[in-house]
Amino acid sequence: MSNTQGVISSISLSARVRPAAHVLGIRGGGWNAIVNERGSIRFNDGSPVLDWHIAADDRWHDPSTEPSVRQTRRAGVPVVETRLRIPGGDAIQRVYAVADAGGLVVIEITNESTLPIAVAFTRSDVVSSRTPSPRGAQGIELPAGSVVFPVAHGSTLRVAVCAPLNVANESANVDVERLPSFEQLQKGWLKAVEQAGYVIVPEGAVAPLVARLRSDALILSGHEIEDWAIGAGGDCANDPVAYILTLQELLRMGEKLTGDPAQIRVDHAARLAQAVETLLKENRKSSILPWDVERALFAAQFVFSRMGENRAADDVAAAQLRMSSAAEPPNVMPTDIRAIAWVEEKMVAVQRDGSVQIFGRGIPRLWLGANLECHRVSAGALHTVSFGIRWHGEKPALLWEVSGPAGVKLDAGLCDPTWSSVEPTGETLLLGFAI
Q: Where along the chain do its domains lie?
C-alpha cells in the first residue's frame, strides 16, 4: 500500500493472456465500465463493446487475438494499460475514467514503435480533438460506424466516450486534451485508497491488491449491493463477511453510508444488522470462530459506531465475547476483500478486551531484516495505529504512534510477551519472535 508513484502490478506477461475484468468508474458514480484482459471496454448500459485495432507497417493487429498482448494495472488503481507488440515497438492503450462532463471513459493510444500507425475504434461516439481519417478502415472488416485515427511515432492520441447514464451528453463539447492525465488519475486514486491507511511490507503484490479492492469498492458504492460482485471484493449480497468488511473500508476512505436516499440506495444500517445476526447465528455453536468472522465482528462495531449506532456496536461486542476463540488466519493471503483484514491482522490486531497487538503472532521469517511500516491502520472506531520497524542486529526496534483517545493498550503478543504500553507514542526494542 505504499505511495510510490509509477509502481505497476503485472496482470499478464505471457502469450496465454489470463482473463481479467477491471472495473472503471468514478467514486460513487453509479455507472461502470469493464476492461478485459485484451483492452476491450464494455459499458454497463448494454451499448456495443468498444474494441481497438492497430494498423502497423505490416498489417492490422487485433489485440483480442494477438499473442503479444501484455496488460498492467498501474499501482492497483483503475488505470489499465494494455501493450500490443507491433513491428518496431509497442502500441499502448491506457484506459481510465474521469468525472468531467458528466462522466467519461478516456482512452489513450501511444505509439512507441519506430513507425507511424493508425488505430481503429469500433464505435462512432468517440470524442477527440482530432478529425478521424476520411478513408476509414481499409483492409479490415469492422462494425459500421468504426473510426480510424493516425498516430505518429512517439505521439499519443486521446479520445473519450460518454459514460453510461450520462443523460446530459455533456461530452459533445469537451476538450479531451484538457482532461486529467492517467498519471494524475493514478495519484488521485492512491490518495483516496491510502486515506484508509496503508502498510509497507516486502511482498510487492500486497499494495496493488489492496488498492484494487478499495478502488473497486469506491466505484461500486453507488450501485446496488448485488452489483458489488462485479469488483474483486467478493459477492457482498450473499457473503456477510465480505459485505461488512467492505463497509468498513468505505468508511475508512471517507464515504457516507447514511443520508439522502437519492444518493445512498441501500439501508446499510438495517442490512448490517441482518449480516451480523447471520454470522452470530451460524457460528454460535462453533468450537473455533473463523478468523474472518472475528474480523467482521470487529468491523461491524466500527461501522455501527461511525453511523452513530453506539448501542448496536456495544451489542455486537458483547455477543462477540460470548463466542469461542478465533482461529489463526491462513498462511495464504485471500484474494477478495478479506485480503486487507488478513494483512492488518498480522500487523495490527484489535483484541476483544480493547487492546491492540502489534505483530501479535510474530514477525514472518520472510520479513526478518526488512523495514516494515504501518500508517493509520484502524484499531477500532476511535483509534488508528502507525508504526515502523527498524532492525538493530537481530532485534526489531518499534516506533509507534496511536491517534485517538488516550489509554488504549498496545502489546506485541508472541513477538515480545514482556512488552506493553498505554503511551500514545514511543519506541522500544522487541525480542522479535519470528513465525
A: 8-180, 207-341, 353-435
